[in-house]
Design goal:
single chain; 10 helices; 291 residues; 2 domains; binds nicotinamide-adenine-dinucleotide; alpha/beta; 14% strand; N-(1-d-carboxylethyl)-l-norvaline Dehydrogenase, domain 2
Length: 291
């Protein structure tokens, strides 16, 4: 809402009023949890959004999802900027973001098609949360205009987009991506493509160490969390956050990071035991805390 425009602005994003404005239309591929949130945020910021889904059924679901979110967010007028399509048609957009399921081969195939469907100067981005961005860049004819734009859930309320660059990503691509992030009222950090990027890697490291401390009886779960909240001004303790994310989700990320970055990410036995026992966190009613 805060960056609503009439969507008619053009240029490369050096807007007025302290924030850049959307520079053209956007293609979002995949209208699930993340794609719908990205589409919502873009439409609210004034961009024309083309949201692509696999078939008519999925397209209708995606449309309903975004329309419902826009209405609940008090921005019903933004619905007019939402255009839901099936397949990946040729579109004169300035930016394309894929948010299809986390599967490297699927993403590579989708990105190759996206690259052929948008103008040569358009940016192409992936919203992957854990796959190597470089492995996607490899299949593109022009990897210079490609990067990761890692949005967080729920997109409209999150302040951060992690921009993930490969060795091929050009400076212009980063500059234009930054402008889009600002146009959404968010802020970016720029991270070289590497396992866990910056946020998952550090967030999981702290979470795993907290679990190891609990395992070793250093302090109670409550006190470990309170130590970081009161002493380090974390908005939430690392164990509570693990409960919210899901212990199974954190375990999978830790296994991936252990395989790629080394033993320091080896999941603690306590985490494995809790996952095996079904204590997955808030969604299961119990994790490190009772919910
Ligand atoms: N959920 C999260 O918290 C989160 C956070 C950050 C990043 N991500 C990443 O975002 C991506 C999407 O995750 P999600 O949670 O939104 O998944 P999701 O399953 O909710 O949505 C994926 C959507 O993509 C659609 N789709 C599948 N194949 C398609 C195709 N060929 N063309 C067009 N649409 C297609 C599906 O119909 C579905 O609607 C993943 O890469 C994930 O890692 C997720």
């Amino acid at each position: 809402m805060d960056h609503a425009t009439d969507g008619s602005s053009t240029g490369t994003g050096t807007g007025t009023g302290g924030g850049s404005r959307p520079a053209g239309a956007v293609l979002v591929v995949g209208g699930g949890t993340m794609g719908a949130g990205i589409a919502q945020s873009l439409a609210q910021a004034g961009a024309e959004v083309h949201l692509a889904e696999v078939d008519e059924r999925a397209a209708a679901d995606a449309r309903a999802r975004v329309e419902d979110r826009l209405t609940r967010a008090g921005a019903p007028a933004a619905v007019e900027r939402l255009h839901v399509v099936t397949g990946i048609p040729e579109l004169a957009v300035a930016l394309a973001i894929e948010a299809v399921p986390e599967d490297l081969e699927l993403k590579r195939a989708v990105l190759r098609r996206v690259e052929g469907a948008v103008p040569a100067e358009a940016l192409v981005a992936t919203n992957t949360s854990s796959l190597p961005v470089t492995a996607m860049a490899e299949v593109l004819a022009d990897a210079g205009r490609f990067l990761g734009m890692h949005f967080f859930n729920p997109v409209p309320r999150s302040a951060l987009v992690e921009l993930v660059t490969t060795t091929a990503t050009t400076d212009r691509t980063v500059a234009v991506a930054r402008a889009w992030v600002r146009a959404l009222g968010k802020e970016e950090i720029v991270v070289r493509d590497s396992p866990g990027f910056a946020t998952s890697r550090l967030g999981v490291a702290v979470g795993l160490e907290a679990i190891r401390m609990l395992e070793e009886g250093v302090a109670s779960a409550e006190d470990i969390d309170r130590g970081m909240v009161l002493g380090y001004r974390f908005p939430m303790g690392p164990l509570r956050l693990t409960d919210l994310v899901g212990l199974d989700v954190r375990l999978a990320i830790a296994e991936h990071l252990a395989a790629t970055l080394g033993d320091r990410f080896t999941p603690p036995a306590l985490l494995r035991r809790k996952v095996a026992a079904g204590e997955l966190g808030r969604k299961a009613g119990r994790g490190f805390f009772q919910w």
